[in-house]
Amino acid sequence: MGDLLVVILVLAVAVPLIIFQKSRHEALIKEKISQIGGTYIDHNREIGLLGAGPFKLVGRGQTVYHINYRIGVQAKEGWVRFGGLGGPDWRV
Asked: What's the order of all strands across the beta sheet hosting 39-46?
């Protein structure tokens, strides 16, 4: 019974944190695209064994997103890596 309680407590803390992190990343992506004069289209999480997008090394605890956006009529794409010591690493 004690083990089950620990699992429930861990899930009760972890799930909201994961949801918060995902929504925070999305808000930061939309804000950055707006700052550069673009219109946000969508983003997808990138998963790679040795790297993702233009990032050759992606460490544990880091998340990389592929971003699609538009500036004027031109479709563009970019990437961002969250989880580094220096903050988000943008390639837009």
From this structure: 39-46, 63-71, 74-82, 89-91
